[in-house]
Amino acid sequence: MKLLLVFDFDHTIVDENSDTWIAKCAPKNKLPNGLRNSYRPGHWTEYMGRVFVYLGDNGVKEDEMKRTMTTIPFTAGMVDLLHFIGENKELFDCIIVSDSNTVFIDWILKAADLHKVFDEVFTNPAAFSSTGYLTVQNFHAHYCAKCPKNLCKRKVLKEFLDQQLERGVSYTQIVYIGDGGNDLCPVMFLKKDDIAMPRQGYTLEKKISQLAQDLCPVECSVLVWSSAAEIMSYLEGLIKE
Fold it and tell me: Which NCBIfam families does the record cross-reference, listed alphabetically (predicted)?
């Protein structure tokens, strides 16, 4: 029996938002106000599509984007945690569910030689067009009113677990590590033996504590973290049991 570790990416594995980090490639390192103000809530992927068109129109090429993205810092203790998971893969399955995109996550993990830690990455598909522009698409369609149009992380998690069951794999515990508002939907899907690990001071922690104040707490256990060293000590404790 194994544990399933589910990671968000932005502000969880890396200490920044990969989508906003790419603005460092723009002229004067920032996006024009008109473009920034064109974002509509729940439609982030379409917004990023416009950002990539703007970068392409300004002559920003793939190699420059890659150089910029691989300078994004990892969250404190995260590289050590991921090495620890990689050394204990017989105990852990490990996936990413993220609102970033396949190109950014692939570049960042491969540059740090951490890509083999993860069994699967679920994120918005991205690719460079024949004209050298980066394009991005919605991950899937869904009917969840709580989540952004392009991605319901609960749906991703549920479908992954169903597929694993068909392969004869079930998990003694799911550990969900994230920070954002869109991580609440999958956290509410977790059961009492599972554990949610919201990053301290971020939206997910605030939303979980608000639910507890409203007397409808999440069913799973909750362990707040500020450094990935705290996640590692929890997993080390599980291994020793």
Answer: DKMTPPase-SF (TIGR01489), HAD-SF-IB (TIGR01488)
The proportion of the chain whose per-residue pLDDT surpasses 90, expressed as a percent, equals 87
Sheet with 120-124, side-by-side order of all strands: 120-124, 92-101, 2-7, 171-178, 195-198, 221-222
CA atoms within 13 A on the CB side of 77: 11
Q: Is 80 a catalytic residue?
A: no
Catalytic residue among 8, 93, 183, 194: 8
Whether 15 is catalytic: no
Tens of pLDDT, residues 72-117: 999 999 999 999 999 999 999 999 999 999 999 999 999 999 999 9
d(CA 13, CA 116): 15
Q: Which domains does the chain have, with CATH numbers?
A: 2-15+75-124+147-240 (3.40.50.1000)
Strand runs labelled E in 92-227: 92-101, 120-124, 126-128, 134-136, 171-178, 195-198, 221-222
The confidence band for 34, taking pLDDT boundaries of 50, 70 and 90, is very high
Residues in the annotated binding site for substrate: 19, 99
